[in-house]
Design goal:
With 299 residues, the chain is mostly helical. It has helices at 3-19, 24-45, 51-55, 59-71, 76-94, 118-131, 135-151, 155-159, 188-200, 222-236, 244-257, 262-269, 274-295; strands at 171-175, 181-185.
């Protein structure tokens, strides 16, 4: 990659992380897409592209690029995400007022989140806490999982909590995607779990440091929680859909099933659009159909 194009990719990375405040995962994915596109253009033309070459890309060019990606084995959902990243990068590279060539993306049927039952959620958290190598680590993991299930936090949001939330009250201020903050109720059981963890943790909480610490005192990595959940899932014989994020889905689905208002649920989850929350109405309908099929003599 030539220095000018390398510089453009670096600008794109900074723009996503700082100006757009995208998550680390999104930044990596969008930058990887930009790099794949420029490498594909170099393979096609025999020379490294520049901004002018990016601006000359046609709809046929983008369709050819996506066809190559589909040949690599990506599905409709991945192709749709790739196209979205391409459009964003080309708008950025072209400057204000530049519109990328119109390309219709593949049709993607929205997936329905599969929640875990309350008993499964509790069993999962208990197993992880009981098999931890230290009591304070078990208390930590228990508190994290209760935050996901009891308050509907994303795992990144839980990892982003710092000591300035202390002392705990009846609500918790959470910073979600794109720096958006929201207030979520804190159940007594969740508050007690965090307090128990803090009482056992060998690292004193400070306002600016991560609330949840790793074994050596640094910020807890989400990957450790995911691995712990995977191990407990295998030990308990739970389905593969039992992930940390499934606990958030369960929070939403169980609240909706108990009569929660959709708008209120949108606020609790931190969804920018109500359409993101409406998927849980389909989850609840799916659960009702499962009950019907299992219980009705004519089903």
């Amino acid at each position: 990659m030539t220095p000018p194009m390398s510089a453009l990719i670096d600008e794109w990375r900074s723009h996503l992380a700082l100006a757009r405040r995208r998550s680390l995962h999104t930044v990596r994915a969008y930058v990887a897409t930009a790099e794949r596109l420029t490498e594909w253009m170099e393979d096609m033309d025999g020379r490294s592209p520049d901004r002018a070459a990016l601006a000359r890309l046609t709809a046929s060019d983008l369709r050819a690029y996506l066809a190559g990606r589909r040949a690599d084995g990506i599905g409709n959902s991945s192709a749709a995400r790739e196209l979205s990243a391409l459009r964003a990068f080309l708008r950025f590279a072209g400057g204000e007022g530049h519109a990328p060539p119109p390309v219709r993306g593949p049709r993607v049927k929205p997936g329905v989140p599969r929640p875990v039952s309350p008993d499964e959620a509790v069993a999962l958290a208990q197993d992880i806490a009981e098999t931890a190598k230290d009591d304070w680590i078990g208390a930590r993991d228990w508190a994290v999982l209760l935050l996901l299930y009891g308050a509907g936090l994303r795992i990144g949001e839980a990892m982003g909590l710092t000591g300035d939330i202390l002392p705990l009250g009846e609500t918790l201020r959470v910073t979600g995607k794109r720096g958006k903050t929201r207030i979520v109720p804190l159940l007594p059981q969740v508050r007690d779990a965090i307090d128990d963890y803090l009482a056992l943790c060998p690292y004193a909480p400070t306002p600016k440091d991560a609330l949840f610490r790793g074994a050596r005192g640094g910020p807890l990595s989400p990957a450790l929680i995911r691995r712990a959940v995977q191990g407990a899932r295998q030990r308990l014989g739970l389905p593969e859909r039992t992930t940390p994020h499934a606990l958030r889905h369960s929070f939403a689905t169980h609240l909706l099933g108990r009569g929660a208002d959709l708008r209120a649920l949108q606020e609790l989850l931190g969804h920018a659009s109500l359409s993101s929350t409406q998927i849980y109405t389909r989850v609840d309908a799916a659960h009702l159909m499962d009950v019907y099929r299992n219980a009705h003599p004519r089903a």
